[in-house]
């Protein structure tokens, strides 16, 4: 809703500005009902986008009628110009004025689900405030970035996380487009084991480009295995709260950025912290940096925490704008109250991020356990090959992870790797012999 309208300047004198686009995900097992929870919020945005689409269709109808009249006027002017019976300068001025004013309406967009980067570029040209990419399953999104021929998509998304800066797309046969603000928000759902797979790759496979660490609004609500079943409830939704959310969303979207407050800095509207909040932010940032340096956490989790330096001011300004919109607080600099609220959110998010990153630490061990389970269930015969596992598509594990898990099982003497003698072809082929003691454990 806000996008590039306004930005936050975390430091008073520094040129560093932060755009309010946010990436995040809900990690949970399929039965957790994470999709209904997500769409209970996005329904408000979908309703607004439907209204904007209806407005676009009405304007398009009006434009088609005006275009018909404009074309006839242009034909008449062309005829006069060709005949040379009037002042051509005056006619040309009128002709150019009609052409300039006869532009089709642009469709306002808020979110999209499964676009190509080329299509996103076209949407952003007409929507310079940015849009949101919402995916029910982020696995599909990650897989699309790994497709052959789509290597540039990853760089496109990585740059869009910053939420500012121009981006030029040049294609033979399609022309060129200039994106004024490459600003995307990204949010979706994902299963923990799938997310762990990508974190594991980033940690151990040399695929660490910072994409996973950008999922700052990441939550992983675990279910208690020992919890007692609860009775289903049927409660009427809080209509007053829904109306308030709907009004805030529309207010933040339709309001001119100058009406939100802030000050103009280098051509953009920015908010700053008030004196108390500014002092607290510097103190919090120093403590974060010291904690990251002295932490014994692995580097990829530290990289995740490092991005909290921009997440905190983003959240603080979002909370501030919501309060301004709902008339709870007056306009002005971001107060200490909102920064404290954002700090609490960051502390909460850090606990969830730890859970997700810790799960990924056991990812290889879990993969090895799955192979052992297949062996014990006699779904793998003595002398099986790695290819036998690849074909199974073992719970979404890729071939590199399977190979690493097999090596781990070799190290612990669950398996013995033997070269297949007399195999055709240049590269040697291997089989895996099962230690009989596996069945006794």
Summarize the structure.
The chain has 441 residues and is of the alpha/beta class.
Description:
This protein has helices at residues 34-83, 88-101, 117-126, 138-145, 151-160, 192-204, 239-254, 275-294, 299-306, 308-325, 336-361, 363-376, 386-392, 399-411, and strands at residues 6-8, 18-19, 23-27, 111-112, 131-135, 167-171, 175-179, 184-190, 217-219, 263-265, 268-271, 415-419, 430-434. With 441 residues, the chain is of the alpha/beta class. The strands form 4 sheets. Strands 4-5-8-3-9 form a 5-stranded parallel sheet, sandwiched between helices. It has a 4-stranded mixed sheet with strand order 2-1-11-10. A two-stranded antiparallel sheet has the order 6-7. Helix 12 crosses helix 14 (399-411). It is globular. It starts with 5 loop residues before the first strand and ends in a 7-residue tail after the last strand. 25% of the residues are buried. The mean pLDDT is 87.
């Amino acid at each position: 809703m806000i996008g590039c309208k306004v930005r936050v300047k975390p430091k008073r004198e520094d040129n560093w500005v932060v755009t309010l686009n946010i990436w995040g995900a809900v990690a949970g097992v399929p039965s957790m009902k994470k999709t209904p929870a997500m769409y209970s919020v996005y329904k408000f945005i979908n309703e607004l986008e439907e209204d904007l689409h209806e407005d676009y269709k009405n304007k398009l109808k009006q434009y088609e009628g005006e275009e018909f009249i404009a074309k006839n006027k242009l034909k008449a002017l062309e005829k006069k110009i060709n005949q040379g019976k009037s002042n051509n300068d005056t006619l040309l001025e009128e002709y150019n004025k009609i052409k300039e004013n006869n532009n089709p309406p642009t469709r306002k967009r808020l979110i999209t689900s499964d676009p190509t980067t080329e299509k996103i570029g076209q949407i952003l040209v007409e929507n310079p405030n940015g849009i949101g990419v919402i995916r029910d399953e982020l696995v599909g999104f990650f897989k699309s970035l790994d497709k052959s021929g789509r290597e540039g998509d990853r760089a496109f998304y990585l740059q869009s996380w910053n939420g500012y800066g121009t981006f030029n797309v040049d294609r033979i046969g399609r022309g060129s487009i200039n994106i004024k603000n490459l600003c995307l928000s990204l949010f979706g759902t994902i299963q923990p084991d799938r997310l762990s797979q990508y974190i594991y790759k980033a940690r151990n496979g040399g695929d660490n480009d910072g994409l996973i660490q950008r999922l700052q609004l990441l939550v992983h609500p675990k279910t208690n295995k020992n919890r007692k079943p609860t009775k289903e409830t049927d409660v009427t939704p809080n209509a007053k709260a829904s109306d308030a959310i709907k009004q805030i969303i529309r207010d933040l979207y339709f309001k001119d950025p100058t009406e939100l407050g802030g000050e103009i800095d280098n051509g953009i509207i920015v908010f700053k912290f008030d004196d108390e909040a500014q002092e607290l932010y510097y103190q919090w940032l120093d403590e974060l940096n010291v904690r990251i340096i002295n932490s014994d956490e692995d580097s990829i989790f530290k990289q995740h925490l490092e991005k909290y330096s921009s997440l905190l001011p983003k959240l603080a300004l979002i909370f501030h704008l919501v309060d301004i919109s709902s008339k709870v607080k007056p306009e002005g600099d971001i107060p200490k109250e909102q920064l404290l609220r954002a700090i609490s959110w960051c502390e909460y998010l850090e606990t969830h991020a730890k859970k997700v990153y810790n799960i990924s630490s056991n990812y290889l061990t879990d993969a090895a356990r799955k192979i052992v389970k297949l062996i014990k269930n006699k779904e793998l015969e003595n002398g099986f090959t790695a290819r036998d596992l690849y074909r199974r598509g073992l719970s979404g594990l890729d071939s590199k992870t399977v190979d690493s898990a097999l090596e781990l099982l070799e190290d612990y003497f669950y398996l013995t790797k033997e070269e297949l003698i007399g195999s055709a072809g240049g590269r040697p082929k291997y089989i895996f012999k099962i230690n009989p003691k596996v069945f006794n454990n």
